[in-house]
Fold this protein.
Amino acid sequence: VMPASYEGQDPKFLIIWVLFHSPKKLIASSETLGSAEEFVARVDIEVDSPNPTPALSSVGLRARAGIARIHAPRDLQTVHLLASVNSAAKQPLPLKNAGNIEVYLDIKVPEQGSHFSVYPENLFLKPGEEHEVIVSFTPKDPKACEERILKIFVHPCGPQYEVVLKGEAISSGSQPLSPGPCCSDLPSILSNKQFLAWGGVPLGRTQLQKLVLRSSHASSAQHLRLLIRGQDQDCFQLQNTFGSEERLTSNCEVTVCPKEDVVISVLFAPTRLSCMLAKLEIKQLRNRLQPGIKFMIPLSGYGGTSNLILEGVKKLSDSYMITVNSLVPGQESRAVFSVRNTGSRAAFVKAVGFKDSQKKVSLDPKVLRIFPDKFILKERMQEDVTVVYTPPDERNDQRTTTELSTVYFFGGDEICRQQYRSIQNPV
């Protein structure tokens, strides 16, 4: 209720708060993001009356809901800096908005009295935009050696990201050991894969993938410790060979000789119908005065697969058959059957007609049409497919039964297809 305003008095104001709650969604960190969702509404201001009255005013409302994701280089998840007293060592830290909505970042080293600082402390990033922040280490004490956490908070409700900062004071005339505790050199271990991703794997089964590690050192061997960590680390294991035995472990140690390749086998065993995430940590083993560089390879996999069957057709030993009767040259004949997905994961299906079973010559669409010829089939769902066959005029319809054409159905995982398309066509 708004009180009346009288002449000679200040007008009364009523403040109305409009709150927007974005819908809750569970999205895996490896899942491809579409565009942010747009929500539109309107507030009408009317006089409360038993009789219909026109709106006094209207206020348009618009909101956007999306996912905030901040990416930083994998080799800078821990920043090592060396500096002499009262001088500064600096490290650029690129931050990229890999989400689908604008983000405001608050970037700080929260502890008081730290020798670390960061600039800028506030940042605004549009989707796909990248900006560098500068991390500085300025020791005041010649014995300064500290470790801090750089916190990157996405306003207003998170998430929060953390980067480990390590700094050490050195004398002005000294040189750091190579590759010393705060060395910023690139890792001397190379990998042929930046990540490992599994498509749909049936529950109760396993699937193996391999990656190759190579040492870029020309003279010394590299001793590595491999460890699987993460929220779903129990679903991923390292496969090691001990003599004639193969064992599954969550960690192992390997030695990579100069210019030598070492094959690492990672096994994925899904436990549920969802995306599972972990990471393979690879750390160089050194003595305590020379801690090695650690880097990670993301692991992701999905439990469940699609499985397509045809219904309403005659099943042969290695294929299906449908019969089209009463063929008349130039006139359409139709046959309808169903494609069912009995699996636990959505499939993308595409149908293509060929003249024969060798898949060498596509059939003229004037002769054979398929509706729909491509579609997404969710788990436990079916799709009716219509085949329209129009015999060419030169065909002799008095012939005995013969093979008219072959329709091939190509099926694949829909989520993997979407991820592949996003890589091929980045925004």
